[in-house]
Amino acid sequence: MRLSLGGFVLAIICDFIDIALNFWSFFADHFLLEPV
């Protein structure tokens, strides 16, 4: 049970990191890298 719970939490963390990286890439491409 503990191993299954650990894998479940790890999957959630990986998904969260993936979403965060995608959001950061979107933010950087649309706001930071555009010449003002």
TrEMBL record:
It comes from Prochlorococcus marinus (strain MIT 9313). The chain crosses the membrane at residues 7-27. Keywords: Membrane, Transmembrane, Transmembrane helix. This is Uncharacterized protein. The keyword Transmembrane helix applies.
